[in-house]
Design goal:
Number of helices: 11
CATH architecture of the largest domain: 3-Layer(aba) Sandwich
Strand content: 15-25%
Number of domains: 2
Bound molecules: nicotinamide-adenine-dinucleotide
CATH topology of the largest domain: Rossmann fold
Distance between the termini: 14 Å
Structural class: alpha/beta
Strand order of the largest sheet: 9-8-7-10-11-14-12-13
Shape: globular
Largest sheet: 8 strands, parallel
CATH superfamily of the largest domain: NAD(P)-binding Rossmann-like Domain
Radius of gyration: 19 Å
Number of strands: 15
Length: about 325
């Protein structure tokens, strides 16, 4: 029997050393374009519900690799001193099927989730949009803010029920901590809460605002009241996923919005569909999180290792 292959292991530090927020934004943008043009593929993610939340199995292929991401969303975990998202990504060579790498899931998820917030703002916010409101300054709120700052948005207002969370993010970026209302007054509002209750209510959003909703990434979650969804021009990362477990699901099931009203981000990026059509309208992007975003960041990690920028650990199974 041939000796078992040597597998590269990238921990969180290696991933973050390999891929900057700016690089993640470019990679994730490209991933959406490749997926929209049919070059990359991705079956729907599978949710396995358990008492503490859910596990997700997320396969996708693109750029010569195929991945399986196995990750949690256990939103009560921070109370127990544990992260919401835990797991790993198995990266295989698409041609040979050989396992190439095991990659830390938290850092890849944080980078690709933050990156899509920046891509959505670049495509859907008003041309003159600058200020950023972050509602929810936990792990993914921090990375969304870092990526928006890397895309030269700001200054921003950070709101979180935890003053420490809001204050430390604001301090890091030279932004300010403020109230939820202050954050909602900004040009680009990014919501990254556990999604258990609406934190954007009817009548609170100004004309011309861009909203990115990141927290509602599974069944039963929502961060905005249905009236807010109904009042906006709607965009999502992927319709099948967003219609079943995202910010749009409640309004869709209540018959307040229809499929025809929702445009996928990839269609805007490839020019197949328009994005914002006036400075006055509210745009709302529903991010449920796609495995193609993870493919995009994993490719950047592998290339950084090939270029000698980071040195992975090795495992032999
Ligand atoms: N769309 C995606 O691709 C994607 C990716 C990763 C995580 N998520 C989701 O994002 C959410 C947040 O994940 P996380 O890892 O950042 O969690 P986290 O626990 O690190 O952060 C959540 C933050 O929200 C704050 N918060 C709670 N209630 C709030 C409220 N009413 N108003 C404002 N802030 C409030 C908490 O204090 C905390 O700081 C989860 O629902 C997770 O499943 C989505």
């Amino acid at each position: 029997m041939a000796s078992p292959p040597d597998i590269a292991v990238f921990d969180g530090d290696a991933v973050l050393a390999a891929v900057s927020p700016s690089e993640a934004i470019d990679r994730v943008r490209n991933g959406f374009v490749e997926y929209a043009s049919g070059a990359w593929s991705m079956p729907p993610k599978v949710y396995l519900e358990v008492p503490n939340g859910d596990f997700r199995a997320m396969p996708a292929r693109g750029g010569g690799i195929a991945i399986l991401k196995w990750a949690t969303s256990f939103t009560d975990n921070p109370v127990r001193g544990l992260p919401v998202v835990q797991g790993l990504i198995c990266v295989s060579d698409e041609a040979s099927g050989s396992v190439l790498a095991l990659v830390d899931v938290r850092s890849v998820t944080a980078l690709r989730t933050g990156a899509v917030a920046a891509v959505a703002a670049q495509e859907l916010a008003r041309e003159d949009a600058r200020t950023v409101g972050i509602v929810g300054c936990g792990l993914h709120g921090r990375w969304a803010a870092r990526c928006l700052a890397a895309a030269e948005y700001g200054p921003g207002i950070c709101f979180d029920p935890s003053p420490e969370a809001a204050g430390s993010l604001a301090g890091e970026l030279g932004w300010e901590a403020g109230t939820r209302e202050d954050a909602l007054d900004c040009d680009i509002v990014t919501c990254v809460t556990p999604g258990r209750e609406p934190i954007v209510r009817a009548g609170e959003v100004h004309h011309g605002t861009h909203l990115t909703m990141l927290g509602a990434d599974g069944p039963g979650k929502a961060e905005a009241e249905m009236e807010v969804v109904q009042s906006a021009r709607l965009f999502c990362d992927e319709w099948l996923q967003a219609s079943h477990g995202g910010e749009l699901t409640g309004a869709l099931e209540a018959g307040r919005i229809s499929r025809e009203q929702v445009t996928e981000l990839g269609a805007v990026l490839t020019g197949a569909a328009p994005g914002r059509t006036s400075d006055n309208e509210i745009t709302l992007f529903d991010s449920t999180g796609l495995a193609i975003q993870d493919v995009a960041v994993c490719l950047a990690v592998l290339e950084a290792a090939e270029a000698g920028i980071v040195k992975p650990g090795r495992a032999c199974l």
